[in-house]
Please model this.
Amino acid sequence: MGRLGSLVLFIAILIGVIGGLHYYLWARLVRDTRLPAPWNTIALGVLLALGAAIPTAMFVGRLYPALRRFLVWPAYTWIGVMFLLFITLLGGDILRALRWSGSKLVGSGDVVDAGRRTLVARILGARFLGAWALGLSGGLALLGMRSALGPVEVRRVRVQLSRLPRERHGTRIVQLTDMHVGPTRGRAFVEEIVRRTNELSADIVAITGDLVDGSVKDLRDAVAPLANLRARFGVFFVTGNHEYFSGAEDWSQELKRIGLRVLHNERVSIGEGSAAFDLAGVDDYSAQRYGGVSHSQALARAVAGRDPQRELILLAHQPRSIVLGEPLGVGLQLSGHTHGGQMWPFNYLVRLQQPFVAGLFQHGRSQIYVSRGTGYWGPPMRLGVPPEITHVTLESGSA
Model:
């Protein structure tokens, strides 16, 4: 299947999913509640408009960047509310199914049980569930937006590494990842993150991918404040999957131009002589789809010829890189990509693709820290997984 065929298939699947979800919402919130006229017609029109806004923002917004911000905000916000509505209504349907199954197994019972069943039936009725779903989803959406758009917390992590030289004990790495600068996050957000990062007096700043959602032409000014990042040993960047949607090579050149060091399947020495360790960076796990080398080749290239007695820290966007990195001597991997799930229950779905979702973990002889992300993608909402700037302090096992 060619690129055009894949695009057509993707659009067809997207429209099918959007249509199915909106039909379900209409059935539960309008049809089953027997919403009276003219409110039923108004509700149908609103759902149709909101449903159409999603593909419109995705495709028309790319063709006309000047309109993108105005299209994306309502569309992406609705995606979040739609998802929350779907989850709450589905939960109600599951409860109703369990109640129906229980009534078949237990039987009619006495008068008291019949009265209780009537009460339960009313509580699980279409109108009550519709009102409950709307209220709960609206409240969760507001909480999610407050978390996503509010101040980004600094999360402090200490990691002990057995091969880290005593002279590098206390080295501070500030990790930024998944900022997703684009139609809903611009220059002001980047300036604030740069200010907060510089306050931490980092030895190394590591940006582990998914920095942007848009082209260099559209976002050059928004990303420009990254030139003001300060770190003793430098500011390093590796690509995430979203860079390949936005022009990875163009962005690599632009970030180099403003002073960032792009690690393209390579490593550098942090420190000198016996008081040094290796910092390596690899392209995103999916880079091969866009003309890059396979991930095993990328890792092999990054560590080729290194002294295995030296500590090795790897910057890799996706956590699953650790499976290939651990046999090659990676002591610590810093990753993002997962957003910690961003909105429950996506954290369970992420586990189907990635071995780790958020936090510090041991994998064989390696450790991996997966950031929840500094920004967000899609809906401007986060539930239970706030954004973070990660402050990693390295500790020497011999200190």
